[in-house]
Amino acid sequence: MANILNSPSKYVQGAGELSRLGKYAEGYGKKALILISASGYKRIGSMVEESFSGTGCSTIFDYFNGECCKTEINRLIEVMEKEGCDMVIGIGGGKILDTSKAVAYYRHTPVIICPTIASTDAPCSALSVIYTENGVFEEYLFLPANPNMVLMDTEVIAKSPARLTVAGMGEAHGVVGENLGTEAEAIRYGSAAELAGRSFAPLSVLLVENFDLPQLRAPGFPDESFIRSEVPMTKQEVRAAALAKLAVMPTDTLWDVGAGTGSVSVELALAAPKGRVYAVECEPDACELIRKNRAKFHACNLILIEGRAPDVLADLPAPDAVFIGGTKGGMEGVLDAVLAKNPDARICISAIALETLGAAIAALTARGLTAEVTQIAVSRTKPAGRLHLLMANNPIFLITGTRK
Asked: Which parts of the chain sit beneath pLDDT 70?
């Protein structure tokens, strides 16, 4: 039986190599479509642009829409046709790279792959994994050839987003093998978080052993599951009802305004594993609790936004759904910010006071939304000797706003 090795035509690895991308690219075409995420562009976009200065290759940057699906592939094919691009450059994680390879395949152009995280096989493979727009696996696209070039900048890889460690990798057990098979061979042990803070020889391999993550379950974690203090927290039954009202989808972009301890934010993040949750909170003590609960539940897609709403909402991406747990008197401004981003956003407001209830109904109605009010009154048992008494929690109102 023959052993066959399929590989990229060219593989380049080293510190700072992304700053030479333009020089490499001009050997493959005259105009490149560069696919990158918005956050990736903020991190390294200027370096990529500068690398093309003085070369014979121009660029068009396009932000990835989040899913390697046929809709996104077709959209980018149209961009290439319109802009006259004759090559594709993918910069980012696995789905960006798979999308870039698929677009290049259908357009019959070269493709250069620039991974920004290490935990993916997408850079070198002759394969794209295609999903639906909702992130459900659809098919494998088997490609006739591997990428024309893979450029691995080790400095960029080493500075990959901290949220990858927040996702729980920091607790995993890791082993690093340095200079294996040489006199300088060394084996280092530690958690992923510990190893991430150390330096190793350029010729090293890393083994990360898996560990048990909390089991996914229906919304409504017990209150005692969360790290708490004196900061108010939305109770279990209310959280479960709020997520039902918001009808959270796996790929949703979600806002939690007035996030408190982050209990609702965490529930939203677990319900939308392929989406993003923005927890907006202005109190420092509450922000610290959100960080702790995000780490405890490995909610890597939960992003803390420190500041007061609506002031800090302008730069957030358009939400599919929004939970408003507190606005410190800024409810109308928050609603205006939400609806300016997405007029059809699903909205759920939590209120404990009658005045807040009235204000929420009035604010939603004034903006052309139909307000629906649900009251939740929960009582829990409390032992009293041999007896059990029902102790009532404060009634909570959930006000949803929808367009009819």
From this structure: 1, 119-120, 161-171, 210-217
Tokens of 373: 């009010």
Q: How far apart are CA 367 and CA 363, in angstroms?
A: 7
Amino acid letter at 256? D
Burial bucket for residue 323 (CB in 10 Å: 0-12, 13-18, 19+) = buried
268-303 burial, b if ≥16 CB within 10 A, otherwise e? bbbbbebbbbbbbbbbeebbbbbbbbbbebbbbbbb
Closest to 65 (Cα-Cα) out of 105, 98, 21, 35: 35
- According to the model, what pLDDT value does residue 63 have? 95
Rounded to the nearest 5 percent, the helix, strand and coil shares of the chain are: 30, 30, 40
C-alpha–C-alpha distance, residues 287 and 322, integer Å: 19
Question: Which pairs with CB-CB distance under 8 Å and at least 24 residues apart come from 25-30?
Answer: 25/52, 25/55, 25/57, 25/87, 25/89, 25/112, 26/55, 26/56, 26/57, 28/87, 28/110, 28/112, 28/148, 28/149, 29/57, 29/85, 29/86, 29/87, 29/109, 29/110, 30/56, 30/57, 30/58, 30/86
Alpha helix positions (H), 52-120: 70-83, 94-107
